[in-house]
Every structure is written in C-alpha cells, then in structure tokens.
Please model this.
Amino acid sequence: MSENGLLLAIKNLRVVFYTEAGQVRAVDGVGLDIQQARTLALVGESGCGKSVTALSILRLIPDPPGRIAGGEIIFKGRNLLQLAESQMRNIRGNDIAMIFQEPMTSLNPIYTLGEQIVEVIKLHQRLKGRPAWEHAIEMLRLVGIAEPEQRARQYPHQMSGGMRQRVMIAMALSCSPAVLIADEPTTALDVTIQAQIMDLLKELQQRNQMSIMLITHDLAVVAENADDVAVMYASKIAEKAAVRDIFAEPLHPYTQGLLRSLPRLGGKRRRLEVIPGSVPDPLHFPTGCKFHPRCPIGHADPRCQQVEPGLLEVQPNRWAACWYAPGYEDKINEK
Amino acid sequence: MTERLQKAKKPRHSENYWLNVWSRVRRNRRGFTGLCFVGFMLLVALFSPLLATNQPIVCKYQGKWYFPAVVELFQSRGTGPHWINKSPPFNLPQFDAKHQLDPQAFAIWPLIPYSEYEQTANFLSPPNRWHWLGTDELGRDLAARMIHGTVVSVKVGFVSMGIAALIGIAVGALAGYWGGWVDIIISRIIEIVICFPVFFLILAIMVWLEPNIINVMIVIGLTRWTSIARYARGEFIRIKGQDYVIAARALGIGHLRIMFRHILPNSLAPVMVSITFGIASAILLEAGLSWLGFGVQPPSPSWGNILRTAYDSLGVAAYMVYPPCVAIFLAVLSYNLVGDALRDAIDPRLRKAA
Amino acid sequence: MFNYIVRRILIAIPTLLGITLVTFVIINLAPGNPAQFQAQGIMDTRVSIRVYEQLSKYYELDKPIHVRYVKWLGRLATLDFGDSMSTDRRKVTDKIKERLWPTMSLAILSIGFSLMLSIPIGIYAAARQNKLFDTLSSTILYALYSVPSYVMAVPLILLVGVQWDLLPFQGMVSDNYGQLTAGGKVVDLVKHYTLITFCFSFGAWAYYSRFVRQNMLEVLRQDYIRTARAKGLTERRVIMRHAFRNTLIPLMTLLGLLLPEIIGGSVILEVMFNWPGLGRLFFESMMARDYPTIMALSFVTACLVLLGTLLADLSYALVDPRVSYD
Model:
C-alpha cells in the first residue's frame, strides 16, 4: 500500500447506548485508518455499528441515549473526541463532511437548495452575498446538475432522489473537506443512479485529492470503488485489508461467507449460499467470538466459544480477528 | 447446526391488541392516576345516596332493623327491593331525640349526614365540624351537594358522549366507507358545524328547550359528534384499503357486515381517545350551562350551579368557590390524562402488530 | 399561489351557505303548534304564544319553506337581522355592531399574547428536553390546559378582585371614565382588560406551548436536522432557523382551529366580568328570548370563525413552499 499519509486514525473507539432494555455496546474497540486521497469502505450488515462509527467521527451521536465511551480519533494531529464543541463545529462541513443515506429527507423542505448550500459556505469561508451564491451554483454545476442557476432557486420537493443526493454532495464538498464520510449514499437510489453517483464521487475525489470513508453493505460497490476495506461485525472489526486482498483471499470466516453469498453469473447453477442464522441481538451478544454461532469453523470450538480473538496484523497490512486466520497463531506466539 | 439455530421462541402471552393497550395504559403512571380518579368519581356517583343523605345506612330502632339509605340507593338507581324496610325519615337531630326515648337505638350514618336538599338554619357558614365544606345561602350542606353534583357530571359525561359517539361513528363510517359524494357532503357538513362556536350552538338550541339534565345531555350529544366523526372517517378510509377488507369483499360479504364486523372493531382505538376527551369537554359544557342558568336548575345540585351561587356571594362566602373549581379541574384533568395515556398506548407502532 | 388563494376562497362559499342553512334550520326548530310542544313538555313553557306570533310574522312562517329561505338570505346579504325582541326594540345589527369590538379585541389580544408567550416557552422546553425547565413547565402547562376558563376566573376574581382588591373585574371601564385624563383612560382600560384577557388566553397559551414543544421535538428528530448539524451550524441556529421555521407552519393552522373555542368561551367570561361584548349580548338575548338576536349572533360568530380559518389557511400557503406550487 502506498504511503499517501495517514489523515484520520480511529483508535479503540467505544460507543454505548443506554436504552430501556439495558446498555448496548454499539461500537466496541474499533480501529480504522483513513489515508489521504484513498477510499476506505466500511462494510457490514445492518446493525453492526458502522453508521455509529461514522457519526462518532463528527460527534453527532445523539446524547442521550448514546455516548462515546472511550477511544481516540486523531485528525491532523488532534484528538477530535477531546475538542470543545465550538472547535468541532469548525471541522464539521469544513474539514470533514458527511452525506447521508436518505436524500429525500435530508434536506430542509422549506429552504431553497441554493440557500442551504450558501449557508455552509457563509459559515466556513469568508464569502458573503453574491460571491457565496456564485460558489454554490458552481458546486451544483460540478456535481452535474444542469441549469444550476434555476435549480438553486428551487425546493427539495421539486427534485428527484438522485438529484437530491447530488445536491447533498455539492453541499458537503463546497468547503473542500479533506475527508468525506458517505453513509450508504446510494442505498436509497435506483441502480443506474447509483452508478452515476459513485462515479461522481470518484471523480471529485481525484480532483480534490479527498479521502472518502464509504459505509455500505453492498460488496459490489466496495469492489468498484474502495481502496481499503474494513469488515465490521457486531460492533467490532472482523477483518481489514486492501480491496484486492480481501476479495482475493478473505481471512475471516465472516468475510468468506459474505463473498460466497454473492451470486455469480455463469458457472454451474448452484443454490445461493447463505450465512446461517442472523445477526446477534446487541443486548445479548454471544460469549467468545461474536461470530462463532454462525461460523463453520468456530461453532463447535471451545476456544471460539469462550475467548474473543482480538484484531491482529497477521500479514503486512492484513488484519483479522479469528483464531483460525492464517498467521494468527504465529502472531500470538510472537507476543 | 441448523437445528440449534432454528430453536424458535414460544410466545409467552397472548398478543391481543386491547390487552396490549390496557397494559400500556396501566404502566403509564399519569394515565393510571387519572383512571383511578375517574373510577373514584364513578364510585362516588354510584353510591351517592349512601355517602350523603339524612337517613342512616343501617339502624336499629325499637327492636327492628332499618336500612333507609340502602333502600334509597336502590330506589334512585331504578329498582327497589321491597323486602327491606324503610321507615319514615330519621333526621339527625330527631334521631338524637329518639335515642333518648329508646336507649337501645343505634345507627350507622353516612359520611355526610345531610341530604342535598335539606335546608338548615345556619346558612352561609364556612367549613366547620358539622359541615365540612360549609353551607350555602339556604343552609344546605355543601359537601352533600358536591357529592350529588358528581352524579350529574358523570351522567352528562357518559350519556352525552354516548349519543355523540353513536352519531359520530355512524356518520364517520358512512363517509369513510362510501367515499365519493357521500363523503364530500358529510365532510362539508362537519366543516360547517365546526364553524359554530360550540357554546353558542348549544345555547341557541337550549333556548327553545326546558333546561334540565336530559335536554342538556341530548343537546351536547347532538353538537359534539363532529370530532368523533372525523376520526371514525379517517380510520374507515385507512382500514378500507387493508387487504383483509378487500378479501372480505372478494368473498362476497355484504357492505353492512363488513362495516360492522370487520372495520368497526379495528377502528375504535382513536375513536376511544376522542370520546375520552369529549367526556372532559361535556363535563365542562354542562358546568358552564348550569352556571349560566340554562342547565341543571336549582335545587338540583350541579357543580356548575354551585359555582354560580359561589360567584353570586363572592364577598361573603369565599369558601364556596373552591370545592366546585377543584372538582371540575380534577375531573377534566383526569379525563385528559386518561385520554393522553390511551393515545400513547395506541401508538401506530403498536397498531402494526395488530 | 394565486390559484390556491382563489380556490380556497371559492371553497369557503358553500361553507358560508351551509352556515346560513344551519342557522335557518335552528330558527325553524319550533315550527308547528307551540302549544302542542308545550304539552309534550319538550319546548320551554316560557315561549309564549305572543312571541311565537311575532316570530311567525318576522320569519313569514306561513309561506313555503324555500321561499322563506331565499328571502332570509336576501335579508342577510344586506345585514338586516330584524328588530330585537328585547325591551329596547332596536335593530339587531346596531346592537351587534356596538358589541363587536369588545369581543374581537379580546380575541385578538389573547391570540396575540398566547402566541408571543408560548413560542419561546415551547422552543426552550424542546431544546432542553427533560431538563428541569421542561418537566416543570410541562406539568404546569398541562394543569393550566385542563382548567376551564371560568374555573380559573372565579377564584381569580375572588383573590385579585375582591380579597386583594388589585384589579377591577366588572365592565370595560370604570364609572368615572368620562372624567379621566387621556392617560388615565388608557390606564383604566388596561386595568379592566387585564383579568379578562388573562382568562381568555391562558388556555390557548398552554395549548400552544405544548404544541410548539411537541412539534419541535418531532422536527428535531428529522434527518435534515442531522444534516444541518453535520454542516457545523451552532445549535442555536439549528433550532431557530431549521427546526422552528418548520414548526411555524402547522402553528398557523392551529390558530384557525382555536378561534371557535375562544369566541365560544366568551359567553361565560363576559357575563362573569360584565363585559359589553357579543357573549354577554347572547346571554341577555337568551334571558329575554330574543330570537332574532340569538340567530344573528350565531350567524355572525360562525362567519367570523370561517374568516379566521380562511386567513389561517392562506397564511399557511404563504409560509410553506410545498403548497405554493400545487
């Protein structure tokens, strides 16, 4: 992996939610690295904690009921979790920006698109009035919206989902952030629009040399767009590697299961593979390795049932959290 | 491995919709308090002749047992068991006198040993040992009148909203189910009726009628059906589109049966909320009407006309103001609490499970 | 936008006709033989035959019903409500005209005050959800909301008016109003307005506050609020510019809905405070069995309510961009 430079490092992040039914550890000791001008994909099923991880970077976790319970998020030499709120506000939308899953509801219905983009421009840059408006229109043009001058005066309900997501991207990028967090940006859109949006993001990344943290559950999107991949399961990272390595030789049984379950064109017609069982209830995580009840290797193994494997770098830039990952035993013995 | 994973969880209890609603209401502390007070009011109203009357509940006089207040309870509630004796009135001072004549005499008196109509000599007296809330300008015990006024409020609340509910549900069901012109016309009517301030409308009709409790109940019922109708209509429209109704139609089931048996039971939840708030408003309206003099007429007690007397004698009888105010406030408050608890309990999230 | 306004006004016209129809129906509630109704104990025995005859003449009960309705509509259009049957025998229209302003001023003042006071409370309570201010104000507001206006009025009059003698509670002006200076007149008016305006408005105030709080909480849960925070806006800006503007919109329709309640409550309050408004006129007319005035008042108030609702809907259209382009 080329050393583009580590831009944002998450270390040992823990986020807890306090609910009526008890305490939920949504994120438990997660560590991630985001390199400059590269895309990190954070993959996992619904409920594994990936969105919470993303929201924690900008400290947008609703408190109550949630709380960041520990860890560090180092960005440009500072620990974001220790900054004052006013300092965080300077970073939001400015150095780190975020776009969300539901473009239909993520824009305020009573303001025009132009007004909403101008708002963030005025906030973080020294532009006012006419120049700010021009910049907003430029951004709309950049994301591929035709006739941006007219569109800027329109309201969200007058646009389609794909266009709204473009507007969200325009808004997020208007202050040229170093990191863009994209939380399932295309899940709510049609497949053809999906491709357009992902292409747009790639193009903008190239232009601005921006890092992207892409949250998704869609492995196809990962294959096409990511440079590095982190697989998350039940509040922990199961495996981390560069994208080619993950797809060529997945080390963790969960990743293997995910890849096996992708339908393939051509070849023999077989039944679709599934990972048996379902994602565990966060209030009642299994003991030991959280994946063991569904794991072909671990479900009968006493060690997997009782002791949770930590995330270790079993090969250069390949991390896995599984007793049976190749190189794992050696790594333990090394210590 | 598959057998282990397929171990299903058996449901622990019945998932009946209304049981769910009830348990949710019970858990809501405020709503439950409101419900308790409503129950308390109902009990007071039901047993009012036992609580405040000038007859003893049970007494033994000259060797015979009498149950005057109990008899009065049954008689005022419609029936009368003939085999229990009720002798000529045993008013308190008289009974003391009789007690001197017959030392064996013994009685258990009701909590407030005065009737609501009985006039004594100490009028306009503030609360004291004999009259816990004081007396009014004719010497009638205020506590007794308040207790019997509860009967009025409870009756008006339930009966008038019963009428309103019947009309409202019928109208709303028709509008919601048939749609089209019927719906347009009915919605117009509802819009028009809503334009009239309720009090003005009720008074305008009461001006032709004899002011008594029955007419009050009818008129309130005839004017307060609109919000119930709207909820019923909304529910019918919503449920009409559900699959089980379409399936019923496909089976050839007639309209009336579908409306009554399939849609109506499922539509009741928001309607119940509306009815609960309606009871609070009916109590308010009756008290207001009685205050103005167009509701329950003296000497019959109603919280409204007790308040009126208090208002008329503000300078000299300040103590009279508080009991009716507190009573009306608590009654309205508790129905509001129950209504809110109901509304929270029939949350749409719960409905999806139904 | 213009289409919307025009359409909305057009829809109001059949409602207006409907109001006239309902009023007409109520007027004709006592057709036929009053003696018969009295015998059945349904109609009030105080409706004497003489009164009935006067009514018959005024409403031309001998003519067929549709003719009567049309003629009555014609009279309405010219605002001719006939002569009052009270002892003063004046034109009903005049009586209403002179009582209109005292009631309308109360309605406007109470809506205005309750709006102004409730919005800050509602926003603050929502912003500091479940903290002390919120729980405390929620409880107090809930209690206030459950108190009917006259139940609040009587103890208030007792304490403030009688026992502590702070404010007057009878009439709109004092007896010596004519001799006061201009400044004195203003002070006198304000003093008289205070108690009754409070009684008129506290219910609406409690309701609005709770509504604003409730609505703000819902709005604050929306995705676009999360987007606004992700843009780096201060919490205050998020609440005022993004959340509150969205709450303002349903608040407008609420105004129209509460208007009939406020006007309806005027009867008891105006009698209690001896206030020379429409409500007390209604009461006096009821006592005197002055049917033309009663009918006229019902009609006028219904129209006022219709007007209020119309204005509320129109202002809604002005504020919510989603509506304009329908």
User: Anything to note?
Assistant: The CA atoms of residues 177 and 236 of chain B lie 6 Å apart. The longest strand of chain B covers residues 58-61. Chain B is about 65% helix and 5% strand.
